[in-house]
Every structure is written in structure tokens, then in C-alpha cells.
From TrEMBL:
Transmembrane segments: none annotated. Residues 13-27 have a biased composition (Basic and acidic residues). It holds the Pfam family PMEI. GO terms for molecular function: enzyme inhibitor activity. Residues 1-41 are annotated as: Disordered. It comes from the Eukaryota. Residues 102-203 form the Pectinesterase inhibitor domain. Keywords: Disulfide bond, Signal. Belongs to the PMEI family. NCBIfam families: PME_inhib. InterPro entries: Invertase/methylesterase_inhib, Pectinesterase_inhib_dom. Gene3D superfamilies: Invertase/pectin methylesterase inhibitor family protein. This is Pectinesterase inhibitor domain-containing protein.
Length: 275
């Protein structure tokens, strides 16, 4: 078989090319390996940088968490302090004196007030709790001042509502206008008597009975004063019964009656101390 000289030459050239290419490929592999090491070193560097320095957003988050925790602790401390001091839902806790007084109020009202005019122990306690003074009350007139003060505000409001309705009444000579004028005068007189009773009760500095000549009021003067309030305010309630469309005013009048009955019942024991 004859050998092809040209094929041998080609084969030799190809071999030489492969041999010449091998070193360059090894160099390329070495460069790639070195490049990989460099990239690895560069990839680690940022991690080291992050470990050594705090990011601003992380610091802000930690500060927010600390402030929030402090606020929660302060709120819990306030709630615990309020509970230990006797505050219940923002109202003073009923004292033994208040509970006992309201029990007597309920018993008195059961014998003197009928139907929806009855003053329950729950109504008494709820009304007195609306004023923080009830927690420090030492006697009945201290407690009675609370519904009297509430009455003073409510009577002024009721009188204003009557005036507005009277102003909107087209026929000034109608029966509705007459009834409203009765209530207007009635509430004005009631407010005057309440102011007098309030001053009498605030200046009350001790008990005295009949036969003692001093400037202190008699025991009975306190409940008698509130009795007058009831007598005067009742004129409006009677007038409203005959007036159509007076449901809102009647409801308001009933609320006033309940506060008056509470005041009378709280002061009722003073009637028995005259002698």
C-alpha cells in the first residue's frame, strides 16, 4: 500500500498544532482558576464589610423597637397603678360608705317613689361614680352635692331646649306655646332654688339640732331645700303631659325627677336628726 506523503505531512502539522495549543489551554485554565480565586475573595469582602458596619435602616428599626417597648411598659404600669388605686373604667371604685348610702337610698325610694320614679341602688352608685368626689365623700351631704350639681347643668340644658321649641312655635297663643312657657318659667325657678340648695350644702360645716343657737343650718334644711326643687319642677312635667309631640321633653323631665329623687333619698336621714 502506498503512503500518501501529503497525508503524512498533514498529520504531522495537526499534531504540531495540538502540541502548540496545549500550553495555551493550560495557561487559560490556570487563569480561570486564578480568576475564580479572585472572584471568591471579592465575594467575601462585602460580607466582611457588612459585619463591620451597621446599616442605617437597621439602626432605625432597632430604635423604633426600643421606643415601642418603652411605651408598652409605661402603659402597662399606668394601668396597673390605676387598678390598684381603685379606678374602674375611668370611674372611682365604689367605697363602702357609698354602697351603704345607696342601699339606704333604694330602701327609702321603694317606700316613697312608685313605678319608673323608683331609685335603685345601681342607679345611685352609677350616678355618684360619675364624679370623682364620691371617692372621698365622708357624709351624706357630700354625696348629695353630686346629683345636685348634675341637676344644675341638666336644668339649664332643659330650659334651653324649651326656649328653642318655643321660638320655633308658629302660633304664640296655642296650647303648645302656653305649656312651653310654663316649662320655661318652671325651669328658671328650679335653677334658682338649686343654686340656693347648692350654696347651703357647700357651706354646711356640721350638724346641729333644734334648740342650738348658732349659724349652722338645721339638719332638716338640707332635704327640705331639695324637696322644694321637686315641687317646683313638677309643674313642667304636668304641663308636658297635655302637649302633643313632647316626648323628648318628657324624657328629659323624667331624668331630672330621678336626680331629684336621688338627692332627696340621700338626705332623708337628716330629717330624723332634728331632735
Amino acid at each position: 500500500m502506498e503512503e500518501d506523503p501529503g497525508g503524512a505531512i498533514i498529520t504531522m502539522k495537526a499534531k504540531d498544532q495540538r502540541e502548540n495549543l496545549s500550553p495555551s489551554r493550560e495557561e487559560a485554565m490556570e487563569e480561570e482558576a486564578q480568576g475564580g480565586n479572585l472572584s471568591s475573595s471579592f465575594s467575601v469582602a462585602p460580607e466582611c464589610h457588612r459585619e463591620g458596619n451597621h446599616h442605617p435602616s437597621m439602626e432605625a428599626s432597632q430604635m423604633t423597637t426600643t421606643i415601642f417597648s418603652t411605651i408598652v411598659i409605661m402603659l402597662l404600669s399606668s394601668a396597673i397603678a390605676a387598678q390598684s388605686s381603685g379606678d374602674v373604667g375611668g370611674k372611682p371604685k365604689p367605697t363602702d360608705f357609698m354602697v351603704g348610702a345607696c342601699k339606704n337610698v333604694s330602701n327609702f325610694s321603694r317606700g316613697h317613689n312608685e313605678g319608673d320614679k323608683y331609685v335603685s341602688q345601681e342607679f345611685c352608685i352609677s350616678t355618684l361614680q360619675s364624679d370623682n368626689r364620691s371617692a372621698n365623700a365622708k357624709n351624706l351631704h357630700d354625696l348629695a352635692l353630686i346629683p345636685v350639681d348634675i341637676l344644675k347643668e341638666r336644668v339649664v340644658t332643659a330650659g334651653g331646649n324649651v326656649k328653642n321649641m318655643l321660638h320655633n312655635t308658629k302660633n304664640s297663643t296655642s296650647s303648645t306655646a302656653r305649656h312651653l312657657r310654663i316649662c320655661e318659667l318652671d325651669y328658671a325657678a328650679t335653677a334658682s332654688i338649686l343654686n340656693f340648695c347648692d350654696a347651703l350644702m357647700r357651706n354646711y360645716q356640721g350638724e346641729r339640732s333644734a334648740g342650738h343657737d348658732d349659724d349652722k343650718p338645721l339638719f332638716s334644711k338640707l332635704p327640705e331645700c331639695v324637696d322644694k326643687v321637686y315641687e317646683v319642677s313638677s309643674y313642667c312635667a304636668i304641663a308636658l303631659l297635655d302637649m302633643p309631640g313632647a316626648e323628648a321633653l318628657l324624657k328629659e323631665s323624667h331624668q331630672l325627677d330621678m336626680l331629684i329623687n336621688l338627692s332627696i333619698a340621700l338626705l332623708a336621714p337628716y330629717k330624723d336628726l332634728e331632735s
